[in-house]
Amino acid sequence: MRKRVKGANPYMPLWEHVPDGEPRVFEYNGEKRVYLYGSHDTMKTEYCGPDQVVWSAPVEDLTNWTCHGVCYTASDGGMLYAPDVVQKGDTFYMYVAEARGSRILVAKSKNPAGPFTDAVPTELGFDPGILVDDDGRVYAYWGFCGCACAELNDDMATIKPGTLHQNPMGHAKTEWNPDLEYVDFEDGFFEASSPRKINGKYVYIYSKRYNTPVESLGVSGDCNGFLSYKYSDKPLEDFQPGGDISFNGGEIIQLEDGSHHMTYQWGNNHGSLMEVNGQWYIFYHRQTGLNEYSRQAMIEPVDVVLGEDGHLYIGKIQYEERNGKKVPVSSGVVEMTSQGAQVNGLDAYSIISAGYACHTYNKAAVFEPGTTDKPYIKPVYEQTEEASSPVVNITNGTTVGFRYLQFAGQEKDPKRQAKKVTFVGEAKEDLQILVRKTAYTGEIIASMTLTKGETVKTVDVTGEVKGKEAIYFEFLSESKGEIAQFSEFYFD
Questions:
Q1: Closest to 81 (Cα-Cα) out of 146, 121, 125
Q2: Which CATH class is domain 22-332?
Q3: For residue 334, which phi and psi values (nearest 5 degrees)?
Q4: Cβ pair 101, 81 in contact under 8 A
Q5: Using an 8 Å Cβ cutoff, are 282 and 324 in contact?
Q6: What mean pLDDT value characterizes the chain?
Q7: How far apart are CA 108 and CA 236, in angstroms?
Q8: How far apart are CA 347 and CA 368, in angstroms?
Q9: How far is CA 467 from CA 178, 202, 211, 434, 471, in A?
Q10: Domain 346-491 has CATH 2.60.120.260
Q11: How far is CA 467 from its chain centroid?
Q12: SS3 of the chain
């Protein structure tokens, strides 16, 4: 029986919707696992839900995630926003954001999977992020359109007198905060505080909201789809510009006129960095559907390098050769992929859900939250092993792309060649599908024609494809409106 790809990007089952993910590596009962704490998008028509769940994976395999169930339920039945969890001593502390983030409590557990109980009020604010330093001192960071940080007392809930720092960095210009005194148009804090300590530096990870265009990423106006960072030698002040780590606007393509375009709906972003088994990863989320209420957990490997000048580079790092030595000179966002932690690519000979697409593009569409005239991944919620999120609203000229697939197969035989490709979905009109490799305008390796009503089509692969490769499906039809729904595919 043909296997189904799992643990890709998103790395949880496609029916699960956990955004705002804060990753933590904890050792419990002699086993080190990555635990993911986040919001829980279950309401479907607004952010989050009234409970939070815990997922974890062994540090040796970030494709094998287990759900430990509900770890906390809102005391008032309201919406729980982004949490964080830290360990001090033998106790795990969950900072829960009740009443849509307006009331922060801290609950406790002896198990990193919870349940977390005995919640007490704190003096913290929106999107709390916590850092337990090497010396046992505890620092908290929080804010929305303006940030603050402070050291906590031993009760893990109240602020140590004299340590509160307001606006340790400038904030974005938004309708929610008209105060211009601390505005930073280029590097403005929006939300999603998440502290880490990396190479001796205090790293403040946050959601940036650009108030200026970012042409190289296809951003033309205000956009907060970024996770960015600043760093300091001190825990609460003197944060220096770092850069951007993640952007959830999909693959960035360049058109013939030189302009850049995103190929996925950007939306709010929240997550953090975690080193797992010697490799750093950025954990973030993407949007599914037409709004920001069905978000899903994503992961990409990143590089982390401390330069000789003391600058901390995180993300996709550029180097220069100086005196026979590679020197880091800049860093930028890592690409958004379908493979996630499967860095060798998804097995092309397994069933791959269209829900793993990182490119759903049509040049006539606008890829911003709330727009409806675009191809998009439809959320699914039925908790089955075969859950597969389809790409819908496909119109003439739409391309759906996956980066990356591995055609050498599990045997890792470089001579193994793909001979056939199968499309599963529904032709809503007569259409042609071109399968391309490398780029959305790349070499055609297969072509199929479907008549209205067809749901499965297998054709020969006529071009050579092997090793790790990006694959794109181009949909063409003379009909107007929606012409297809794309559910899954596989190669033979």
A1: 125
A2: mainly beta
A3: -80, 155
A4: yes
A5: no
A6: 95
A7: 25
A8: 31
A9: 52, 40, 41, 20, 12
A10: yes
A11: 26
A12: CCCECCCCCCCCCCCCCCCCCEEEEEEECCEEEEEEECCCCCCCCCCCECEEEEEEEECCCCCCCEEEEEEEECCCCCCEEEEEEEEECCEEEEEEEHHHHCEEEEEEECCCCCCCEEEEECCCCCCCEEEECCCCCEEEEEECCCEEEEEECCCCCCECCCCCEECCCCECCECCECCCCCECCCCCEEEEEEEEEECCEEEEEEEEEECCCEHHHCECCCEEEEEEEEEECCCCCCCEEEEEEEECCCCEEECCCCCEEECCCCCCCCCEEEEECCEEEEEEEECCCCCCCCCEEEEEEEEEEECCCCCEEEEEEEEEEECCEEEEEEEECCCCCCCCCCCCCEECCCEEEHHHCCEEECCCCCCCCCCCCCCEECCCCCCCCCCCCCEEEECCCCEEEEEEEECCCCCCCCCCCCCEEEEEEEECCCEEEEEEECCCCCCEEEEEEECCCCCEEEEECCCCCCCEEEEEEEEECCCCCCCEEEEEEEEC
Contact indicator for 55, 12 with CB cutoff of 8 Å:
yes
Please answer whether residues 489 and 473 qualify as being in contact, where contact means their C-beta atoms are separated by less than 8 angstroms: yes
- Is-contact 269 275, C-beta < 8 A? no
pLDDT recorded at residue 410: 45
- CA trace torsion 150, 153, 158, 163 (10° rounding): -30
Domain boundaries for CATH 2.115.10.20 within the chain: 22-332
For the chain, residues classed under CATH 2.60.120.260 are: 346-491
Beta carbons within 10 angstroms of residue 227's beta carbon: 27
Q: What is the average per-residue pLDDT within 452-478? A: 96
One-letter amino acid at 232 equals S
Beta strand pairing call for 81-88 and 66-73:
unpaired
Torsion angle, alpha carbons of 452, 457, 461, 465, to 10: 100
Structure tokens at 458: 């297998």
Each residue's pLDDT tens digit, 48-94:
999 999 999 999 999 999 999 999 999 999 999 999 999 999 999 99
**Residue from 119, 105, 92 nearest 25 by CA:** 92
Q: How far apart are CA 181 and CA 18, in angstroms?
A: 35
Q: Give phi and psi for 106, each to the nearest 5.
A: -125, 125
Residue 30 neighbours by CB distance under 10 Å: 5
R_g of the chain computed on alpha carbons = 23
> Residue 163 is which amino acid?
T
How do residues 174-211 score in pLDDT, each as one tens digit?
999 888 889 998 899 999 999 999 999 999 999 999 99
Judge contact between 407 and 348, C-beta under 8 A. yes
The pTM (predicted TM-score) of the whole model is 0.96
